[in-house]
Protein backbone atom coordinates (compact mmCIF):
# COMPACT_ATOMS: atom_id res chain seq x y z
CA UNK A 1 0.00 0.00 0.00
CA UNK A 2 1.37 3.39 -0.97
CA UNK A 3 2.16 6.06 1.66
CA UNK A 4 -0.64 8.24 0.23
CA UNK A 5 -3.22 5.49 0.78
CA UNK A 6 -1.96 4.82 4.32
CA UNK A 7 -2.26 8.52 5.10
CA UNK A 8 -5.75 8.68 3.63
CA UNK A 9 -6.81 5.65 5.68
CA UNK A 10 -5.45 7.14 8.92
CA UNK A 11 -7.16 10.48 8.23
CA UNK A 12 -10.47 8.70 7.51
CA UNK A 13 -10.27 6.69 10.74
CA UNK A 14 -9.46 9.81 12.77
CA UNK A 15 -12.33 11.68 11.15
CA UNK A 16 -14.74 8.84 11.94
CA UNK A 17 -13.58 8.74 15.57
CA UNK A 18 -13.97 12.51 15.79
CA UNK A 19 -17.56 12.26 14.54
CA UNK A 20 -18.33 9.49 17.07
CA UNK A 21 -16.78 11.60 19.81
CA UNK A 22 -18.99 14.54 18.90
CA UNK A 23 -22.11 12.36 18.75
CA UNK A 24 -21.66 10.62 22.09
CA UNK A 25 -22.91 12.46 25.19
CA UNK A 26 -20.21 13.87 27.44
CA UNK A 27 -21.08 11.45 30.24
CA UNK A 28 -20.71 8.51 27.80
CA UNK A 29 -23.09 6.00 26.26
CA UNK A 30 -24.55 3.44 28.67
CA UNK A 31 -24.49 0.01 27.02
CA UNK A 32 -25.67 -1.89 30.07
CA UNK A 33 -22.56 -3.75 31.19
CA UNK A 34 -20.25 -0.88 30.28
CA UNK A 35 -20.25 2.82 29.50
CA UNK A 36 -18.42 4.01 26.36
CA UNK A 37 -16.57 7.34 26.52
CA UNK A 38 -14.96 9.01 23.53
CA UNK A 39 -12.89 12.23 23.63
CA UNK A 40 -13.84 14.94 21.18
CA UNK A 41 -11.32 16.41 18.77
CA UNK A 42 -11.15 19.48 20.99
CA UNK A 43 -10.35 17.33 24.01
CA UNK A 44 -7.44 15.75 22.15
CA UNK A 45 -6.02 18.80 20.37
CA UNK A 46 -6.72 21.47 22.96
CA UNK A 47 -6.76 19.57 26.24
CA UNK A 48 -6.96 21.84 29.27
CA UNK A 49 -5.37 21.02 32.59
CA UNK A 50 -8.03 20.34 35.20
CA UNK A 51 -8.48 23.27 37.55
CA UNK A 52 -7.97 22.47 41.21
CA UNK A 53 -10.27 23.80 43.89
CA UNK A 54 -8.46 26.07 46.33
CA UNK A 55 -8.42 24.42 49.77
CA UNK A 56 -5.58 26.50 51.18
CA UNK A 57 -7.67 27.56 54.21
CA UNK A 58 -8.26 23.91 55.07
CA UNK A 59 -4.60 23.00 54.58
CA UNK A 60 -3.66 25.79 56.99
CA UNK A 61 -5.59 24.11 59.80
CA UNK A 62 -3.25 22.23 62.15
CA UNK A 63 -5.50 19.40 63.25
CA UNK A 64 -4.50 17.34 66.29
CA UNK A 65 -2.44 14.23 65.63
CA UNK A 66 -3.98 10.82 66.33
CA UNK A 67 -1.93 10.32 69.48
CA UNK A 68 -2.12 13.89 70.82
CA UNK A 69 -2.49 14.20 74.59
CA UNK A 70 -3.50 17.85 74.42
CA UNK A 71 -5.27 20.08 71.97
CA UNK A 72 -2.91 21.28 69.25
CA UNK A 73 -1.99 24.94 69.54
CA UNK A 74 -3.02 26.72 66.39
CA UNK A 75 -5.78 24.36 65.32
CA UNK A 76 -8.87 26.20 64.15
CA UNK A 77 -11.24 25.50 67.03
CA UNK A 78 -8.54 26.28 69.59
CA UNK A 79 -7.81 29.70 68.14
CA UNK A 80 -11.50 30.49 68.59
CA UNK A 81 -11.74 29.36 72.22
CA UNK A 82 -10.15 30.97 75.24
CA UNK A 83 -10.60 27.91 77.44
CA UNK A 84 -9.43 27.26 80.96
CA UNK A 85 -9.13 23.95 82.82
CA UNK A 86 -12.50 24.78 84.33
CA UNK A 87 -13.98 25.85 80.98
CA UNK A 88 -17.03 23.58 81.12
CA UNK A 89 -18.23 25.44 84.22
CA UNK A 90 -17.69 28.97 82.90
CA UNK A 91 -18.85 30.80 79.77
CA UNK A 92 -16.25 30.43 77.04
CA UNK A 93 -14.76 33.35 75.20
CA UNK A 94 -15.15 33.06 71.45
CA UNK A 95 -13.51 35.18 68.76
CA UNK A 96 -15.90 34.96 65.81
CA UNK A 97 -13.63 37.09 63.61
CA UNK A 98 -11.16 34.20 63.33
CA UNK A 99 -13.67 32.05 61.47
CA UNK A 100 -13.35 33.94 58.18
CA UNK A 101 -13.05 32.87 55.39
CA UNK A 102 -14.32 29.40 56.30
CA UNK A 103 -17.28 30.61 58.35
CA UNK A 104 -19.96 30.43 55.67
CA UNK A 105 -18.75 27.10 54.25
CA UNK A 106 -18.72 25.23 57.55
CA UNK A 107 -21.77 26.70 59.28
CA UNK A 108 -24.77 24.62 60.35
CA UNK A 109 -28.07 24.98 58.52
CA UNK A 110 -31.19 25.07 60.69
CA UNK A 111 -34.95 24.57 60.29
CA UNK A 112 -37.48 27.33 60.92
CA UNK A 113 -37.02 27.13 64.69
CA UNK A 114 -33.35 28.00 64.25
CA UNK A 115 -30.43 26.86 66.39
CA UNK A 116 -32.78 26.03 69.25
CA UNK A 117 -32.87 22.46 67.91
CA UNK A 118 -29.37 22.06 69.40
CA UNK A 119 -30.13 23.77 72.71
CA UNK A 120 -31.15 20.59 74.59
CA UNK A 121 -27.73 19.10 73.83
CA UNK A 122 -25.93 22.33 74.70
CA UNK A 123 -27.75 22.50 78.03
CA UNK A 124 -26.63 18.94 78.77
CA UNK A 125 -23.03 19.87 77.93
CA UNK A 126 -22.96 22.62 80.52
CA UNK A 127 -23.71 20.23 83.36
CA UNK A 128 -22.07 17.09 81.95
CA UNK A 129 -19.15 17.26 84.39
CA UNK A 130 -21.52 17.11 87.39
CA UNK A 131 -23.73 14.23 86.26
CA UNK A 132 -23.82 10.74 87.74
CA UNK A 133 -23.41 9.19 84.29
CA UNK A 134 -21.95 10.55 81.05
CA UNK A 135 -24.26 12.04 78.44
CA UNK A 136 -24.00 10.44 75.00
CA UNK A 137 -23.61 11.46 71.41
CA UNK A 138 -24.18 8.67 68.86
CA UNK A 139 -22.36 9.15 65.55
CA UNK A 140 -23.88 6.89 62.87
CA UNK A 141 -22.43 6.70 59.39
CA UNK A 142 -21.05 4.66 56.53
CA UNK A 143 -17.45 3.64 55.78
CA UNK A 144 -16.27 7.27 55.94
CA UNK A 145 -16.28 6.94 59.74
CA UNK A 146 -15.29 3.28 59.97
CA UNK A 147 -12.86 2.37 62.75
CA UNK A 148 -13.54 5.61 64.71
CA UNK A 149 -12.47 7.99 61.93
CA UNK A 150 -13.79 11.55 62.33
CA UNK A 151 -15.64 10.53 65.51
CA UNK A 152 -12.40 10.10 67.48
CA UNK A 153 -11.38 13.68 66.79
CA UNK A 154 -14.73 15.21 67.71
CA UNK A 155 -14.98 13.02 70.82
CA UNK A 156 -11.55 14.12 72.02
CA UNK A 157 -12.48 17.79 71.62
CA UNK A 158 -15.78 17.38 73.47
CA UNK A 159 -14.22 15.35 76.28
CA UNK A 160 -11.37 17.84 76.67
CA UNK A 161 -13.72 20.80 76.77
CA UNK A 162 -16.62 19.29 78.75
CA UNK A 163 -14.97 16.38 80.60
CA UNK A 164 -15.37 12.69 79.92
CA UNK A 165 -13.26 9.77 78.72
CA UNK A 166 -13.40 6.41 77.00
CA UNK A 167 -14.06 5.27 73.41
CA UNK A 168 -17.77 4.65 74.03
CA UNK A 169 -19.92 1.81 72.70
CA UNK A 170 -18.15 -0.89 70.68
CA UNK A 171 -19.17 -4.20 69.15
CA UNK A 172 -17.68 -7.52 70.23
CA UNK A 173 -16.86 -8.37 66.62
CA UNK A 174 -16.85 -5.87 63.75
CA UNK A 175 -15.97 -5.77 60.06
CA UNK A 176 -12.73 -3.90 60.82
CA UNK A 177 -10.52 -2.76 63.69
CA UNK A 178 -11.49 0.01 66.09
CA UNK A 179 -8.63 2.51 66.29
CA UNK A 180 -9.38 3.54 69.89
CA UNK A 181 -9.51 0.14 71.62
CA UNK A 182 -7.84 -3.26 71.19
CA UNK A 183 -9.99 -6.40 71.03
CA UNK A 184 -8.83 -9.99 71.52
CA UNK A 185 -11.61 -12.56 71.06
CA UNK A 186 -12.07 -16.29 71.25
CA UNK A 187 -12.51 -17.59 67.71
CA UNK A 188 -16.11 -18.79 68.16
CA UNK A 189 -17.76 -15.35 67.99
CA UNK A 190 -20.15 -14.66 65.10
CA UNK A 191 -21.62 -11.35 64.00
CA UNK A 192 -25.24 -10.90 62.84
CA UNK A 193 -25.81 -7.56 61.16
CA UNK A 194 -28.77 -5.64 59.79
CA UNK A 195 -26.55 -5.08 56.73
CA UNK A 196 -26.35 -8.83 56.03
CA UNK A 197 -27.76 -9.65 52.55
CA UNK A 198 -29.03 -12.95 54.05
CA UNK A 199 -31.07 -11.05 56.64
CA UNK A 200 -34.16 -13.24 56.17
CA UNK A 201 -32.22 -16.23 57.49
CA UNK A 202 -31.61 -14.60 60.87
CA UNK A 203 -33.54 -15.98 63.82
CA UNK A 204 -34.79 -12.54 64.86
CA UNK A 205 -34.38 -8.79 64.24
CA UNK A 206 -33.08 -7.57 67.60
CA UNK A 207 -30.00 -5.70 66.39
CA UNK A 208 -29.86 -2.89 68.95
CA UNK A 209 -28.08 0.46 68.71
CA UNK A 210 -25.10 -0.99 66.79
CA UNK A 211 -27.38 -2.51 64.11
CA UNK A 212 -25.72 -5.85 64.91
CA UNK A 213 -25.31 -8.41 67.68
CA UNK A 214 -22.72 -11.12 68.36
CA UNK A 215 -22.91 -14.71 69.70
CA UNK A 216 -20.43 -17.45 70.64
CA UNK A 217 -22.89 -20.30 69.90
CA UNK A 218 -25.08 -20.68 66.78
CA UNK A 219 -28.33 -18.73 66.59
CA UNK A 220 -31.01 -21.42 66.66
CA UNK A 221 -34.81 -21.25 66.60
CA UNK A 222 -36.50 -21.98 69.93
CA UNK A 223 -37.78 -25.26 68.49
CA UNK A 224 -34.23 -26.63 68.05
CA UNK A 225 -32.64 -28.33 71.07
CA UNK A 226 -29.44 -26.84 72.47
CA UNK A 227 -26.09 -28.61 72.56
CA UNK A 228 -25.51 -30.25 75.95
CA UNK A 229 -21.82 -29.25 76.02
CA UNK A 230 -21.18 -25.69 77.30
CA UNK A 231 -19.23 -23.26 75.17
CA UNK A 232 -17.13 -20.30 76.29
CA UNK A 233 -16.77 -16.90 74.66
CA UNK A 234 -14.09 -14.46 75.81
CA UNK A 235 -13.62 -10.76 75.09
CA UNK A 236 -10.40 -9.00 76.13
CA UNK A 237 -10.31 -5.21 75.78
CA UNK A 238 -7.40 -2.84 76.36
CA UNK A 239 -6.54 0.78 75.49
CA UNK A 240 -4.94 1.33 72.09
CA UNK A 241 -1.79 3.46 72.11
CA UNK A 242 -2.85 5.04 68.79
CA UNK A 243 -5.89 6.63 70.43
CA UNK A 244 -6.27 10.02 72.04
CA UNK A 245 -5.40 9.98 75.74
CA UNK A 246 -9.03 10.65 76.68
CA UNK A 247 -10.15 7.56 74.77
CA UNK A 248 -7.47 5.47 76.48
CA UNK A 249 -8.85 6.34 79.93
CA UNK A 250 -12.05 4.63 81.06
CA UNK A 251 -13.31 3.60 84.48
CA UNK A 252 -16.70 2.07 83.65
CA UNK A 253 -17.70 -0.91 81.54
CA UNK A 254 -21.28 -1.79 80.62
CA UNK A 255 -22.35 -4.96 78.86
CA UNK A 256 -25.63 -5.07 76.88
CA UNK A 257 -26.90 -8.60 76.29
CA UNK A 258 -29.88 -10.94 76.61
CA UNK A 259 -32.24 -13.53 75.14
CA UNK A 260 -30.37 -16.70 76.20
CA UNK A 261 -32.25 -20.01 76.64
CA UNK A 262 -29.98 -21.66 79.22
CA UNK A 263 -28.14 -20.56 82.38
CA UNK A 264 -25.18 -18.28 81.65
CA UNK A 265 -22.03 -17.83 83.74
CA UNK A 266 -20.60 -14.31 83.46
CA UNK A 267 -17.13 -13.40 84.78
CA UNK A 268 -15.18 -10.12 84.77
CA UNK A 269 -11.40 -9.95 85.19
CA UNK A 270 -9.23 -6.82 85.30
CA UNK A 271 -5.49 -7.21 84.84
CA UNK A 272 -5.82 -10.94 85.53
CA UNK A 273 -7.74 -10.53 88.79
CA UNK A 274 -11.31 -11.85 88.92
CA UNK A 275 -13.70 -9.11 90.04
CA UNK A 276 -17.04 -10.88 89.77
CA UNK A 277 -18.79 -14.08 88.76
CA UNK A 278 -22.50 -14.79 88.56
CA UNK A 279 -24.91 -17.25 87.03
CA UNK A 280 -27.73 -15.61 85.10
CA UNK A 281 -30.88 -17.60 84.52
CA UNK A 282 -32.46 -17.77 81.02
CA UNK A 283 -33.82 -14.40 79.98
CA UNK A 284 -36.09 -13.24 77.14
CA UNK A 285 -35.17 -9.59 77.34
CA UNK A 286 -32.24 -7.17 77.34
CA UNK A 287 -29.99 -7.11 80.39
CA UNK A 288 -27.13 -4.83 81.40
CA UNK A 289 -24.19 -5.37 83.73
CA UNK A 290 -21.87 -2.61 84.91
CA UNK A 291 -18.41 -2.67 86.43
CA UNK A 292 -16.48 0.32 87.81
CA UNK A 293 -12.72 0.55 88.22
CA UNK A 294 -10.65 2.90 90.42
CA UNK A 295 -8.37 3.57 87.43
CA UNK A 296 -8.11 2.40 83.84
CA UNK A 297 -7.14 -1.30 83.75
CA UNK A 298 -4.36 -2.46 81.47
CA UNK A 299 -6.92 -4.95 80.15
CA UNK A 300 -10.25 -6.48 81.06
CA UNK A 301 -11.61 -9.89 80.09
CA UNK A 302 -15.31 -10.71 79.95
CA UNK A 303 -16.01 -14.45 79.92
CA UNK A 304 -19.42 -15.91 79.08
CA UNK A 305 -20.06 -19.63 79.43
CA UNK A 306 -23.17 -21.69 78.67
CA UNK A 307 -24.92 -23.95 76.19
CA UNK A 308 -26.69 -20.98 74.60
CA UNK A 309 -24.96 -17.66 73.97
CA UNK A 310 -26.87 -14.49 74.72
CA UNK A 311 -27.13 -11.92 71.97
CA UNK A 312 -24.45 -9.38 72.88
CA UNK A 313 -25.43 -5.92 71.65
CA UNK A 314 -22.33 -3.98 72.66
CA UNK A 315 -19.87 -2.96 75.36
CA UNK A 316 -19.59 0.64 76.55
CA UNK A 317 -16.23 1.86 77.89
CA UNK A 318 -16.73 5.29 79.47
CA UNK A 319 -15.71 7.66 82.20
CA UNK A 320 -17.95 8.31 85.18
CA UNK A 321 -19.09 11.78 84.02
CA UNK A 322 -18.78 14.17 81.10
CA UNK A 323 -19.35 13.23 77.47
CA UNK A 324 -19.37 9.80 75.83
CA UNK A 325 -19.40 9.57 72.04
CA UNK A 326 -19.98 6.38 70.06
CA UNK A 327 -18.72 5.59 66.56
CA UNK A 328 -21.32 3.38 64.82
CA UNK A 329 -20.33 2.70 61.23
CA UNK A 330 -21.81 0.27 58.74
CA UNK A 331 -19.96 -0.38 55.51
CA UNK A 332 -22.28 0.24 52.56
CA UNK A 333 -24.98 1.82 54.74
CA UNK A 334 -27.40 4.48 53.54
CA UNK A 335 -29.79 4.59 56.51
CA UNK A 336 -31.98 1.64 55.49
CA UNK A 337 -30.68 -0.50 58.34
CA UNK A 338 -32.65 1.46 60.96
CA UNK A 339 -35.96 0.03 59.71
CA UNK A 340 -34.71 -3.58 59.66
CA UNK A 341 -34.45 -4.11 63.40
CA UNK A 342 -36.85 -4.56 66.31
CA UNK A 343 -37.92 -0.98 67.04
CA UNK A 344 -38.99 -1.54 70.66
CA UNK A 345 -35.65 -3.10 71.53
CA UNK A 346 -33.80 -0.26 69.76
CA UNK A 347 -35.76 2.33 71.75
CA UNK A 348 -34.91 0.54 74.98
CA UNK A 349 -31.19 0.59 74.22
CA UNK A 350 -31.25 4.27 73.24
CA UNK A 351 -32.86 5.01 76.62
CA UNK A 352 -30.26 2.94 78.49
CA UNK A 353 -27.50 4.90 76.76
CA UNK A 354 -29.03 8.28 77.75
CA UNK A 355 -28.63 9.63 74.21
CA UNK A 356 -28.57 13.45 73.95
CA UNK A 357 -27.17 13.96 70.43
CA UNK A 358 -27.71 11.87 67.31
CA UNK A 359 -25.41 12.46 64.32
CA UNK A 360 -26.40 10.80 61.04
CA UNK A 361 -23.73 10.84 58.31
CA UNK A 362 -24.99 9.23 55.10
CA UNK A 363 -25.63 9.74 51.39
CA UNK A 364 -22.46 8.48 49.74
CA UNK A 365 -23.52 4.87 49.23
CA UNK A 366 -26.75 5.77 47.50
CA UNK A 367 -25.04 7.82 44.77
CA UNK A 368 -23.98 4.95 42.45
CA UNK A 369 -27.66 3.93 42.26
CA UNK A 370 -29.09 7.41 41.63
CA UNK A 371 -29.86 7.99 37.94
CA UNK A 372 -32.05 11.11 38.11
CA UNK A 373 -32.95 14.10 40.23
CA UNK A 374 -36.30 12.42 40.99
CA UNK A 375 -34.50 9.40 42.47
CA UNK A 376 -32.36 11.74 44.59
CA UNK A 377 -35.52 13.42 45.88
CA UNK A 378 -37.05 10.01 46.65
CA UNK A 379 -34.00 9.11 48.75
CA UNK A 380 -34.27 12.43 50.56
CA UNK A 381 -37.90 11.71 51.49
CA UNK A 382 -36.91 8.25 52.72
CA UNK A 383 -34.17 9.77 54.85
CA UNK A 384 -36.63 12.26 56.30
CA UNK A 385 -38.71 9.27 57.42
CA UNK A 386 -35.63 7.77 59.11
CA UNK A 387 -35.15 10.99 61.10
CA UNK A 388 -38.82 11.09 62.08
CA UNK A 389 -38.68 7.51 63.38
CA UNK A 390 -35.48 8.12 65.36
CA UNK A 391 -36.83 11.33 66.90
CA UNK A 392 -39.77 9.33 68.30
CA UNK A 393 -37.41 6.72 69.70
CA UNK A 394 -35.09 9.27 71.33
CA UNK A 395 -37.43 12.04 72.53
CA UNK A 396 -35.65 15.23 73.49
CA UNK A 397 -32.38 14.44 71.72
CA UNK A 398 -30.87 16.88 69.23
CA UNK A 399 -30.30 15.55 65.70
CA UNK A 400 -27.58 16.61 63.24
CA UNK A 401 -27.44 15.27 59.68
CA UNK A 402 -24.11 15.33 57.85
CA UNK A 403 -24.48 15.20 54.08
CA UNK A 404 -22.17 13.31 51.69
CA UNK A 405 -18.63 14.41 50.95
CA UNK A 406 -17.47 15.17 47.44
CA UNK A 407 -16.87 11.93 45.53
CA UNK A 408 -15.24 11.70 42.12
CA UNK A 409 -15.51 9.54 39.03
CA UNK A 410 -13.21 9.65 36.03
CA UNK A 411 -14.52 11.56 33.02
CA UNK A 412 -12.04 11.48 30.17
CA UNK A 413 -8.69 12.33 31.75
CA UNK A 414 -10.18 14.20 34.71
CA UNK A 415 -11.82 13.27 38.00
CA UNK A 416 -15.11 15.09 38.49
CA UNK A 417 -17.90 15.13 41.08
CA UNK A 418 -20.28 12.19 40.80
CA UNK A 419 -23.53 12.90 38.94
CA UNK A 420 -26.49 13.87 41.15
CA UNK A 421 -24.34 14.31 44.28
CA UNK A 422 -25.61 17.84 44.79
CA UNK A 423 -29.19 16.64 44.21
CA UNK A 424 -28.79 14.01 46.95
CA UNK A 425 -27.22 16.60 49.25
CA UNK A 426 -30.06 19.05 48.60
CA UNK A 427 -32.73 16.40 49.15
CA UNK A 428 -31.18 15.29 52.43
CA UNK A 429 -30.90 18.88 53.61
CA UNK A 430 -34.50 19.71 52.69
CA UNK A 431 -35.92 16.70 54.53
CA UNK A 432 -33.58 17.00 57.52
CA UNK A 433 -34.70 20.58 58.12
CA UNK A 434 -38.34 19.58 57.63
CA UNK A 435 -37.92 17.02 60.45
CA UNK A 436 -36.39 19.54 62.86
CA UNK A 437 -32.77 18.43 62.47
CA UNK A 438 -29.71 20.59 61.90
CA UNK A 439 -27.75 19.97 58.69
CA UNK A 440 -23.98 20.16 58.17
CA UNK A 441 -22.88 20.30 54.53
CA UNK A 442 -19.65 18.26 54.39
CA UNK A 443 -19.54 18.65 50.60
CA UNK A 444 -19.46 22.44 50.84
CA UNK A 445 -17.15 22.43 53.88
CA UNK A 446 -14.45 20.56 51.96
CA UNK A 447 -14.66 22.92 48.97
CA UNK A 448 -17.68 21.89 46.90
CA UNK A 449 -17.67 20.63 43.31
CA UNK A 450 -14.50 18.77 42.27
CA UNK A 451 -12.83 19.49 45.62
CA UNK A 452 -12.06 15.80 46.22
CA UNK A 453 -9.29 16.06 43.62
CA UNK A 454 -7.56 18.71 45.72
CA UNK A 455 -7.93 16.54 48.83
CA UNK A 456 -6.36 13.55 47.05
CA UNK A 457 -3.50 15.65 45.64
CA UNK A 458 -2.74 17.50 48.88
CA UNK A 459 0.59 16.91 50.61
CA UNK A 460 0.14 14.81 52.69
CA UNK A 461 -2.94 13.40 50.93
CA UNK A 462 -6.23 14.14 52.68
CA UNK A 463 -8.11 11.45 50.74
CA UNK A 464 -7.39 8.06 49.19
CA UNK A 465 -6.89 7.44 45.50
CA UNK A 466 -10.36 5.93 45.25
CA UNK A 467 -11.47 9.61 45.28
CA UNK A 468 -14.09 8.68 47.87
CA UNK A 469 -12.63 8.03 51.34
CA UNK A 470 -10.63 10.38 53.53
CA UNK A 471 -7.11 9.55 54.68
CA UNK A 472 -6.44 9.67 58.45
CA UNK A 473 -5.22 13.24 58.02
CA UNK A 474 -8.32 14.13 56.01
CA UNK A 475 -10.62 12.56 58.59
CA UNK A 476 -9.02 14.76 61.26
CA UNK A 477 -9.52 17.82 59.05
CA UNK A 478 -13.20 16.98 58.65
CA UNK A 479 -13.49 16.44 62.39
CA UNK A 480 -11.89 19.83 63.03
CA UNK A 481 -14.28 21.59 60.65
CA UNK A 482 -17.34 19.91 62.13
CA UNK A 483 -16.30 20.54 65.72
CA UNK A 484 -15.59 24.19 64.94
CA UNK A 485 -19.08 24.63 63.50
CA UNK A 486 -20.57 22.90 66.56
CA UNK A 487 -18.58 24.85 69.16
CA UNK A 488 -19.39 28.08 67.31
CA UNK A 489 -23.10 27.42 67.83
CA UNK A 490 -22.45 26.48 71.45
CA UNK A 491 -20.65 29.78 72.02
CA UNK A 492 -23.59 31.70 70.56
CA UNK A 493 -25.92 29.71 72.83
CA UNK A 494 -23.88 30.60 75.93
CA UNK A 495 -23.71 34.26 74.88
CA UNK A 496 -27.34 34.77 73.93
CA UNK A 497 -29.41 32.15 75.77
CA UNK A 498 -27.67 31.68 79.13
Q: Sheet with the most strands?
A: 6 strands, mixed
Alpha carbon gap, first and last residue: 90 Å
> Order of strands across the widest beta sheet?
5-23-20-19-6-18
CATH superfamily of the largest domain: SGNH hydrolase
What's the rounded overall pLDDT mean? 87
The total count of helices amounts to: 13
According to CATH, what is the topology of the largest domain?
Rossmann fold
Helix content: 25-40%
Give the strand content: 15-25%
Number of domains: 2
Q: Gyration radius, to the nearest Å?
A: 26 Å
The coarse overall form would be: globular
What report would you give on this structure?
With 498 residues, the chain is α+β, with helices and mostly antiparallel strands. It has two domains: 54-164 and 321-498, Rossmann fold (3-Layer(aba) Sandwich); 165-320, Jelly Rolls (Sandwich). The chain is 28% helix and 24% strand. It has 13 helices and 23 strands. The chain has helices spanning 3-23, 41-45, 56-59, 76-80, 103-106, 119-126, 151-162, 343-353, 373-393, 421-434, 442-445, 451-457, 472-496, and strands spanning 29-30, 35-36, 81-82, 93-94, 108-109, 135-141, 168-170, 181-185, 190-193, 212-215, 231-239, 252-260, 264-270, 273-280, 283-292, 300-306, 311-318, 323-329, 355-361, 398-402, 408-411, 414-417, 438-440. The strands form seven sheets. A six-stranded mixed sheet has the order 5-23-20-19-6-18, with helices on both faces. Helix 7 (151-162) runs parallel beside helix 13 (472-496) and helix 9 runs parallel beside helix 10 (421-434). The longest helix is centred in the C-terminal third of the chain and has 25 residues, at 472-496. The N and C termini lie far apart (90 Å). The model is unreliable at 66-75 and 79-91 (pLDDT under 50).
